[in-house]
Amino acid sequence: MSSLTKAGLKYISESFANLTDLGLYYNSIGDDDIRFIVDSKILKNLKILELANCELHQEGARLLSLSENMKNLTKLNVMDNLFGDNGLKYIADSLYLMNLTHLNAMRNDIGDKGIIALSQSKNLSRLRFLSLMGNYRIGNEGVKSLVYACGVNFQRLQILELGQNSITDEGAKYFLHNDNIFNNLLELDLSHTRIHEMQQKIPEKLPNLKIFSYGMNEVIKR
User: Fold this and answer.
1) What is the DSSP letter of 27?
2) 50-65: per-residue pLDDT in tens?
3) Overall fold of domain 1-82
4) Would the pTM count as exceeding 0.70?
5) Superfamily of domain 110-222
6) Kind plus residue range of the DSSP H or E element containing 141
7) Of 25, 61, 107, 207, whose CA is between 20 and 30 Å from 198?
8) What range(s) does the F-box/LRR-repeat protein 15-like leucin rich repeat domain occupy (predicted)?
């Protein structure tokens, strides 16, 4: 873990008006110091923002969601933080993150409430990549909500990562009951979950799927 100083963040926030890609991952930034980025008067052109493992919590998510500097963002990586359910809801409800095509929220202490809030949002309809891996509190109710949302709010989704969660065969059944919802889905990761009987049936139901990860480390490619 590195530690970018306040002075360093301040310098970035005041010096790079044309910056489109900003990687701040593995820095102990925290909720207070992320203000340098979200409140910057010149960082208006950001398209990619990497904030993995930056010690951000739901307040950091709230600040990001309210920042006009995020309006052009297409890729947001916040893996290995602690957004929780409320933090994901802030991201989902943001009017400034509506251009996102990639959202990585791996390992963020997110549960069913968070994924349900995400599913109900109409603001992230451009998403093509969504990762919620490693959020062990996500279970069947969250998956049910997300699967149905894929037919309404996330129709462009191509890659969905839901591995390392608490999904069982009951949750996996929702992938089988919804025709034409996943027409654009190319990759699905349900590895390291509690799915057993359903894992072989899912790729049969999703004809356009190219890569399906399941079990411990098993992959079907076609």
Assistant:
1) B
2) 999 999 999 999 999 9
3) 3.80.10
4) yes
5) Ribonuclease Inhibitor (3.80.10.10)
6) helix 140-149
7) 107
8) 43-169
